[in-house]
Write a structure and sequence with these properties.
The complex is a heterodimer. Chain A is built from 18 helices and 15 strands. By secondary structure, chain A is of the alpha+beta class. In chain A, the strands form four sheets. A six-stranded antiparallel β-sheet of chain A has the order 1-6-7-8-2-3, with helices on both faces. Helices cover 56% and strands 14% of the residues of chain B. In chain B, helix 5 links the parallel strand 5 and strand 6. In chain B, helix 6 crosses helix 8. Classes of the chains: A alpha+beta, B alpha/beta. At the A-B interface, helix 14, helix 15 and helix 16 of A face helix 2, helix 3, helix 4 and helix 6 of B.
């Protein structure tokens, strides 16, 4: 036990050290290579490996962050493949069994072979013939007629067939599944079909309406037979172990992406929906080269031509509906003859009843499509036909009205704050000062000593009044901001922060004063949050202007939990930025880190020329 | 001692020149804009300049820029900047050339004319004077660091006064202790912060400020 522990510790150290020294991202390539090992040499698997290589060399940090995720995906995929591969019946789950049947469906073409001597002999013959391929395991699915005691009973078997002929057949599921007994009429003549498929043999035996189907798989090499499952489990474990470390890095990248995504959503309203809808298509039309190609095309369309993508969403949904209606209408209702299942959306259709349910699902698709048509195709057509009623313009007007209201409110609140501040601070102190001076005037002739003390007090009061005014003005417009603009002002802000702030500021010029002010107070608020609430020990601020857009990121390594929905600080920032069409995205999960990303479209004026 | 005063508000300019004249300074020139200041500094080469940070033409930090520009042409030209606000960023820029003879004070400090005139003289003599507000902020920034936290409360007090530009004598007066006690504190501070000790007051201030500013 002790030796084992030492071995484990050493192993862990070696792994950690290797991971630290080698640029971890490079491992993304072999993990992606798992796709080829699992699914064969196909266009998409090769594309995945190429993409992994590209990311690993081009963006090693992102690759390193993606590594644990890809390990988890590869591990799960490995387990799923091991489970679905016919032959390794131990891993079989029922949904995947249905998928397997769908693959067998197309195979029933050859005319039946008549075998004399009952079901047992037919099964034996099937197996004998299948022995041409190296037999390792036999999977048997027994299908009986629907009835009070019958039903579909999948019997995953091993090389030993769980088959007990006679008036009562007993199906036994290895591994503790349920056993079901039912009547099997065993006439002397049965029809058997054998169809070579996918390297194995699918077979169906019809004995008086009772159909038994199965699939005999060839023996697997060491890969699928022995190595795959342990390797998949190892990848899954390693991936899950490393996942929390890379989550922080991923989140940082995600915060930037999130802002981009939000902007895109605002821009093209429904176009982005095309991608998930296209993915849904895989469950409706199945995984074929043309469906995969269609998804890629949809992604490109959604990014490049968002308006067209939005128009395509209802069209694609209508196509789904048509397919659903077709399934509902054409599903055969022959008793006894079982058709392999077919996936439609969330339903695996195996019976006529389920086919009807699929029809209902198709109706739901149609309803969504109908709801979307006026919002996409209709709106675009209206814009094209009647430029006067520009829907986008309407939306913009509405947004402007909202943000203008907010801006007016904010200005009003700010004015009130200033008024109250002056009233309670500087004004009150000036009054006190005046009263003091008046008292001095009275005392001077008689009691010059006491007058002197009052003069000192008056001087103190004037200092306090100055301090009040200074603080007030700093809150309205910080001096460095007015003097030198946003970049320097944020630098000054960083200097006043009681812990290290990493700055990466690239602002070769000045912005308009209102934008500068809004952005300054946004950064100040984010920084104040980091100081006050998060317990951060390091903050970084990134700020740059490119393509008419000011991008600001403020991140800290604190405890997280910042939420614009709670508390007025960040919410106020969001509203203030909204007045300039700016947006803010906050990523701050409990436990941190916090990342606040802001984007404001604005122009950069040429740097101020200095006469000295 | 010849002094140039730069302040755009007439009332304050007038008050400053009166105050300085009353303390025996000779007013070489009093100007109200940054270009005027630069010209006056280069023409008169005064012993010290008292400059408002915010000046015309752009009413930004033109006074500071003009002072820095003048010091580039005349290295070590003594300049005392006055402002309604003290900013660490500006203090940093003033201290950047490490040559001393600079001061940066809140305008309020003029209220105490003795201290203010002392500050002007210190700067004229090549010393460095920082506003207590700047020093407080600098110390606040360093409080989480190891070395500064190792100082005792008294040593921190001495450090703050040193950073403001005061000599041992002034610190001793301020804290009501003997000069010897102060020099014991300063030695201890320099040892704890790992700075090279120096007898020269000016060098000492610069070393402390450079340390706090990093």
């Amino acid at each position: 036990m002790g030796d084992m522990w030492i071995l484990l510790t050493v192993l862990r150290r070696v792994v950690v050290r290797v991971l630290r020294h080698v640029r971890r991202g490079i491992f993304l390539i072999p993990v992606a290579g798992m796709a080829i090992a699992l699914f064969g040499l196909q266009p998409w698997t090769v594309a995945a490996v190429l993409l992994a290589a590209l990311v690993a060399f081009w963006r090693p940090v992102v690759a390193a962050a993606l590594l644990p995720v890809s390990m988890v995906v590869a591990g799960i995929s490995g387990l799923v493949v091991a489970a679905t591969e016919p032959g390794s019946g131990f891993w079989t789950v029922s949904v995947l069994g249905a998928l397997k049947q769908a693959r067998i469906k197309a195979a029933i073409r050859r005319p039946p072979v008549i075998v004399k001597g009952g079901v047992k002999r037919a099964v034996k013959r099937v197996i004998d013939e299948a022995h041409q391929v190296p037999l390792k395991r036999v999977a048997v699915t027994r299908v009986g007629p629907a009835g009070p005691r019958g039903g579909v009973v999948p019997v995953p078997g091993s090389a030993r067939l769980n088959w007990y002929p006679g008036p009562v057949a007993q199906a036994v599921i290895p591994g503790g599944g349920q056993g079901v007994k039912f009547q099997v009429p065993a006439p002397p003549v049965v029809a058997a079909q054998m169809v070579p498929r996918g390297g194995g043999t699918a077979w169906h035996i019809n004995s008086g309406g009772v159909v038994t189907s199965g699939f005999i798989a060839p023996g697997h090499g060491p890969w699928l037979g022995g190595l795959l499952v342990p390797l998949a489990l190892l990848l899954l474990t390693l991936g899950l172990w490393l996942l929390p470390r890379s989550a922080a890095t991923l989140r940082t990248h995600a915060a930037g992406l999130l802002a981009l995504l939000r902007r895109r959503m605002l821009e093209n309203r429904w176009g982005i929906l095309l991608v998930p809808v296209a993915l849904l298509g895989l469950t409706v039309f199945g995984v074929h080269p043309w469906t995969v190609a269609a998804i890629l095309a949809c992604v490109v369309t959604a990014v490049r031509w968002p308006l067209l993508a939005a128009d395509l969403v209802p069209v694609v949904l209508i196509a789904f509906a048509i397919r659903g209606f077709e399934i509902a209408a054409s599903w055969p209702s022959l008793p006894g003859l079982q058709q392999p299942g077919e996936l439609y959306g969330v339903i695996v259709v195996t019976t006529r009843q389920l086919a009807m349910l699929a029809g209902a699902e198709a109706s739901a698709f149609l309803v969504i499509a109908a709801w979307l048509v006026p919002r996409t195709i209709g709106a675009h057509a209206r814009t094209a036909l009647a430029p006067g009623r520009d829907l986008e313009l309407e939306g913009r007007v509405q947004r402007l009205t909202e943000t203008r209201d907010l801006a007016v409110d904010a200005a009003d609140t700010e004015l009130r704050r200033i008024e109250r501040n002056l009233h309670d601070g500087a004004q009150a102190r000036l009054i006190a000062l005046g009263m003091n001076l008046r008292a001095v005037e009275r005392m001077l002739p008689g009691r010059p000593e006491a007058a002197l003390a009052l003069v000192a007090e008056a001087r103190e009061t004037s200092l306090r009044a100055l301090n009040d005014l200074r603080d007030l003005v700093r809150g309205i417009c910080p001096p460095v901001l007015a003097d030198r603009g946003l970049g320097h002002a944020v630098r000054a802000l960083a200097l006043d922060t009681p812990f290290p702030v990493d700055l990466d500021i690239n602002l070769p010029g000045r912005l308009s004063a209102p934008v500068e002010s809004a952005c300054y107070f946004a950064v100040a608020e984010a920084l104040a949050n980091a100081v006050r609430h998060s317990g951060a020990r390091r903050v970084h601020i990134r700020m740059q202007h490119a393509d008419g857009m000011l991008r600001i990121q403020v991140g800290d390594d604190g405890a997280g939990g910042a939420d614009p929905a709670h508390g007025t600080g960040l919410r106020g920032v969001e509203q203030r930025l909204a007045a300039f069409d700016g947006i803010m995205a906050v990523s701050s999960p409990p436990g941190g880190p916090t990342m606040i990303a802001m984007e404001v479209p604005c122009a950069l004026s040429s740097p101020k020329t200095c006469s000295f | 001692m010849r002094v140039v005063v730069a302040e755009d508000l007439f009332l304050l300019r007038d008050g400053l020149t009166r105050l300085l004249a009353a303390h025996g300074f000779e007013i070489a020139a009093s100007v109200d804009s940054a270009p005027g200041l630069l010209d006056a500094l280069l023409e008169h080469r005064p012993d010290v300049a008292v400059v408002d940070v915010r000046l015309p033409p752009s009413f930004a930090d033109d006074g500071l820029q003009a002072a820095l520009a003048a010091r580039q042409q005349v290295p070590g030209l003594p300049v005392l900047l006055l402002s309604q606000y003290v900013e660490q960023l500006y203090a940093r820029e003033l201290l950047a050339d490490q040559s001393g003879a600079v001061g940066y004070l809140l305008k309020d400090r003029v209220f105490n004319d003795d201290q203010f005139v002392d500050a002007v003289r210190t700067v004229a003599a090549g010393g460095t004077v920082m506003d207590p507000d700047v020093v407080t902020k600098l110390l606040g920034r360093r409080f989480r660091d190891e070395p500064v936290t190792r100082l005792s409360a008294r040593e921190r007090e001495v450090l703050a006064l040193m950073a403001e530009g005061r000599s041992n004598v002034a610190i001793a007066q301020r804290l009501f202790v003997t000069e010897k006690a102060v020099s014991k504190h300063t030695t201890s501070i320099f040892t704890k912060l790992g700075l090279a000790a120096s007898e020269d007051d000016n060098r000492r201030v610069l070393a402390v400020l450079a340390y706090l500013n990093t």
